[in-house]
Amino acid sequence: MSNVLSNFDTWKKFLAGRVEQGKKIGLSEESISDLAYEIGAFLGEKVDPKNEQEQALKEIWEVGNEEERKTIAGLMVKLVQRS
Fold it and tell me: Which Pfam families does UniProt cross-reference here (predicted)?
């Protein structure tokens, strides 16, 4: 996981791959966003940011309430789907 988080573009590619896998097995957009939220919660608690982008996301995540964090997770899913 450390290699995936060392570069923001690498992280986005990793997340895009997981989103694509989720779609292939039939997960709904809501389920994918829920999983992204869980990943965000785990990373926020257990993983130190490796770059400026991750630091900014962590700080935004920390000040957000649950609904705002779910929005952030959903936006990350949209971001990687666009790439």
Answer: DUF3243
